[in-house]
């Protein structure tokens, strides 16, 4: 799987198989962004992995059951992270 996090606090997880290999110079749309949004992190993870989201000095660990709420298909918007964790500073696989 691949986890994509935006600066607006959205998280989308999709299967790596959904990501086609393109010819050189071509791009893939990973997540739907609105004007002014940017992708902060792209992280590979397995189905058993947890995701540790850090926002400032606080962090939350999203376990595999929690990550199901953010799973979708490539190019979708994803789900919004819990309030207080939408200003993401780092993402780690745990």
Please give the structural blueprint.
Blueprint lengths: L1 E5 L3 E5 L24 E6 L6 E5 L2 E5 L1 H4 L11 E2 L9 E4 L1
Antiparallel strand pairs: 1-2, 1-3, 2-6, 4-5, 4-7
Short description:
By secondary structure, the chain is mainly beta. The protein has one helix at residues 64-67, and strands at residues 2-6, 10-14, 39-44, 51-55, 58-62, 79-80, 90-93. It has one helix and seven strands, in the order E-E-E-E-E-H-E-E.
- Care to count the β-strands? 7
Helical residues, percent: under 10%
Task: Give a short account of the largest sheet.
Answer: 4 strands, antiparallel
Counted by DSSP, the helix tally is 1
The rounded Rg comes to 13 Å
Question: What's the rounded overall pLDDT mean?
Answer: 93
Number of domains: 1
- How are the strands of the largest sheet arranged? 3-1-2-6
Class inferred from helices and paired strands: mainly beta
* 3D shape: globular
Which H/E pattern describes the elements?
Answer: EEEEEHEE
Low-confidence stretches: none
**Span of the ends, CA to CA:** 14 Å
β-strand amount = 25-35%
